Amino acid sequence: MNYLNNLNVFKRRRNTSSTGDSSSAVSSPATPAIDAAGCSGAPAGNGSGTPQRRKKKSKNGRKRTISVVPISEVTEASLELWRTLPPKIRHDPSMVSFQQVELEHARLHGDCHEDSFPEIQGLEEDGAEEDDDEEEEEEDEEYENEFITINVTNEEGQNKEIGHVKEKKEIPKPHVHHLAGHYIGNITPPKHDDINDTGQNNLDEDHPFRKYSKIICLFITWLLIMSFMVVKDEKLVEPKHLSISPGKTKAYILPHLPQSTRIKVTLEGTFLSEPYSNITEHYLEVYLQMLSSTLETNATDLFSASSAKNISEPWYIPIVHPYLFDSAPIVKEQRLFDIIDSNYEQLHQTNGGLVRLMIRSNIQASMPIAIRYDQSPVNRDVGVIYAAFVLIFLYVLIIWEIVHRTFAAVIASTLAISILAALNDRPTMEDIIGWIDVETILLLFSMMILVAILAETGIFDFLSVYIYKITNGKIWSLIHCLCLCTVLISSFLDNVTTVLLMAPITIRLCEVMDMNPVPILMAITVHANIGGTTTPVGDPPNIIITSNQYILKHGVTFLTFTAHMLVGVIIVVITTNIHLRIIYKNINHLRMHEPKELKELRRNIKVWERAAGKIPPYSKDANIVRETLMKKVKLLRHQYKKKMTKGTVPEDIYRSTLEELQREHPIKNRPLLIKSGVVCVFIVSLFFLESIPELRRLSSGWAALLGVVLLLIISDKNDMDAVLSRVEWPTLLFFAAMFTLMEAVERMGLIDWIGHATETIILSVSEDLRLAVAIIIILWISALTSAFVDSIPVTAMMVKIVVALSEKAYLGLPLQPMVWALAFGPCLGGNGTLVGASANVICAGIAEQHGYRFSFMDYFKLGFPIMLVSVFVTTGYLIMAHVVFAWH
After folding, report:
1. What are the TM regions of this chain, as residue ranges (predicted)?
2. CA distance 249 to 285
């Protein structure tokens, strides 16, 4: 029977009933309207759990469902295909055209099926339509509790099951977290039994081969270290004090023949550093002579000029004027003299050959000096290879998390010292202690105690709630707010202090919003390193650069430094935030748990796609149904994408969470907060005074320590065990080991090799391209090197190269563009790896203290691409500003 002719009657009936509750797509299943034939007047409710379809307002202001397929296109064959679909799909509002035709067919024939009653039948899928896939079964289990079985008691007192009705589930009220603890919300704190000292799960216990392989390799390394340290003695180079008479050449005979083709000579005296060599005419000349003799040569002729041969180029050292000898500071200068192979062979083949050091000056006064010499220095060509091996060994231990990074640094630094011993250059204990930057260790120690005391006031919880309030629970607004605050603070405080202050706030905010703190912590660490680039006091490399007297005398002041760096920092911050938006386009990657509504949408998409896939596209009627299903899939995907990238907390959850957070987390100890605030102002003021050369009396470490001591006094802290327990001792030990390692590899010649290669490349290009090449080489070499080697020795080495290039007038290289390139390089390069900057390691330590952890590779995947992009953008800025527009 062609029942489609009766659709006009059905349309009129639908229009007359639209003012009631008979809207097919939006009517509630609770009170279905039953017509005379006993059929439901609302063929499909929205109780299926599927997302609401797009609705259109009618002229009378009410919403009515818009079907994706017109009723006129529904044929008998397509209706038969529709009947084969699962009830959940048949009763969806997007299938309203088929539902209306089916309802009209039922009215005409008087055969109402149970499927026509979704309010009673329920919206669960047929068992035959369930997928055997394990993932689908796991997702379906999450929804089993959404359906309840209704049992009614009949007159005989027997329970009778009448069907399944979907339970109306309330939106779960968010669990408000206690911010004072380390683990809050849905985040389960890791158990100490499940985590070993390396921060890893007990993989070694599950893989015995890996465990014993690690033990064997580390034991072999220990044996090598012990053997080298036991066999070789410490190298003691005692100074010799000489007096250089005016107009005479002082000859100092070396007691032993050199053991290699190199002799390292170190002089101490009232010298001028190389950048000031052009302001004096007084100099000291040093060179080597070889004394050869035969059997016929007597002792008197041995020291005659006729038997001497110069075997090195002269070394000229500028010295101060004689009347400043008593007041000028002592400066240390060293030089590595190379002896060609022919002279070296002649020296050892000749009977009674000697080497003497010739020293003379052109001043008319006696000059005292101290001399040290090393006749078996480290062969730099071999030392560079060993240094690279040690660094690779360190990164293998850290990247693959074989041991904890602190233990890895201790092993690598000890191995480097043992290699120096094998190369006959074992340092003394005094040398090793001098390698450790106590200033940085003192700063970190003091700031850790300060942050621990500040946490007792509840200020971090209070600020977290405030930021949560002003960002309205929007994830990206929160991230951008944290990053910008980090950049501003890091511009005036060092990046380590900034991370110590911002990391606790970030962790608490993420826990409130059920977000994974690890990506956000890495993001603020990246911005701390970027912000530290802005001013001379923001990062240790900047302090090294602006402390150089030659650079200061060439117009690099606090204001000029900040003006040139600020433009580049703004560009880098913008590109970095865009980069973060691209990386975390899927907002779920930032969440600890996927929201339930997204899980349900994803599940519904799979259900509809599976239903569409079962309809063969062999006829027009099948295509009608298939097209209807695919349009629904497209709509669901659009809703899923919109919710996935929206990144906001629902309004009701946001309001309830904010109210409870404000009630539970006020300031806990206002007197202690006031005292801590006064101390913080005091410390920051000393930090600023340090940037003024005339007022530079206290270093950053001393300023922080004095502030912490003051806070302990006025807060009357008696339980020092509790205070010291907050100090990240593994982090401090890691820094001490890394300082030792960097000095050891520098002593092997790695840093000098990098500097020499950089200078060679710059000098090899034509003059018109030299400035652009110099900017690119200095920026990229310092950035890439600082990503894997500590930035402090890299900056100290590159400063010498920049000054040397600027002094060579024939090169025509202005100083300031190279200084800006050097300032950007180490600061931005520190974002490349976890050990590239001190702030990175500090942030990782704070995360572990709060129960979160990110590995070397976790940080590398985020930080290294950001580092490459930021350095590339900075290169363009420097080229445009100083090569194209000559802003210097």
Report:
1. 382-400, 406-423, 435-455, 475-497, 558-584, 672-692, 698-715, 769-789, 862-887
2. 9
**What distance in Å separates the CA atoms of residue 74 and residue 369, rounded to the nearest whole number?**
105
Q: Using CA atoms, how far apart are residues 319 and 359, in angstroms rounded to an integer?
A: 13
> Are 326 and 312 in the same domain?
yes
Separation of alpha carbons 512 and 231, rounded Å: 58
Angle of CA points 402, 405, 408, to nearest 5°: 70
Asked whether the CA dihedral 268, 274, 278, 283 is positive or negative, the reply is positive
C-alpha distance from residue 515 to each of 378, 402, 458 (Å): 52, 29, 21
**Assessment of whether the complete model's pTM goes beyond 0.85:** no
pLDDT at 572 over 50: yes
Q: Which residues 6+ apart lie within 8 Å of 190 measured at CB?
A: 851
Phi, psi (5° rounding) for residue 374?
Answer: -130, 110
The verdict on residue 194 lying in a domain is no
Q: Measured between alpha carbons, how far is 737 from 446 in angstroms, rounded to an integer?
A: 19
Report pLDDT for 888.
77
Element of type H or E holding 286: strand 283-291
How much is the pLDDT for 293? 59
Please indicate, yes or no, whether residues 372 and 512 belong to a single structural domain of this protein: no
The boundaries of the domain holding residue 660 are 441-540+558-590+655-726
Strand partners, 884: none
Q: What value does the mean pLDDT take over residues 725-731?
A: 87
- Maximum alpha-carbon separation in the chain: 140
Q: Which of 42-51, 90-99, 280-289, 697-706 has the lowest mean pLDDT?
A: 42-51
Is residue 182, in this structure, part of any structural domain at all? Answer: no
**How many domains is the chain partitioned into structurally?**
3
With respect to residue 777, please indicate whether it lies within any of the assigned structural domains.
no
- Whether 850 and 779 have beta carbons less than 8 Å apart is answered as no
Q: Which of 357, 377, 397 is the last residue of a domain?
A: 377
Using a 10 angstrom Cβ sphere, with 0-12 exposed, 13-18 middle and 19 or more buried, the burial of residue 744 is: buried
CATH number at residue 318: 2.60.120
Q: Tell me the mean pLDDT in the region 327-349.
A: 86
> If we measure between CA atoms, which residue out of 495, 457, 447, 455 comes closest to residue 708?
447
Quote the distance between the C-alpha of residue 409 and its chain's center.
19
Tokens of 231: 């066999």
Percent of the chain beyond pLDDT 90? 30
Query: CB–CB of 486/534 below 8 Å?
Result: no
Same domain for 296 and 336, yes or no, is yes
By residue count, the chain amounts to 888
The residue out of 628, 649, 670 marking a domain boundary is: 649
Same domain for 581 and 716? yes
Phi, psi of 834 (to 5 degrees): -65, -30
Structure tokens at 109: 């024939």
CB within 8 A of 129, min separation 6: which ones?
Answer: 86, 610, 611
471 and 530 share a domain? yes
Q: Is the pLDDT of residue 383 over 90?
A: yes
| 534 shares a domain with 480 | yes
The C-alpha atoms of residue 484 and residue 470 are separated, in whole angstroms, by 14
pLDDT tens per residue across span 774-830: 999 999 999 999 998 878 778 877 887 888 788 777 778 899 999 999 999 999 999
Q: Are residues 577 and 721 in the same domain?
A: yes
Interatomic CA distance for residues 658 and 340, integer angstroms: 77
| pLDDT, position 639 | 78
Within a domain: residue 176? no
Task: State whether 563 and 600 are in the same domain.
Answer: no
| pLDDT reading at 392 higher than 70 | yes
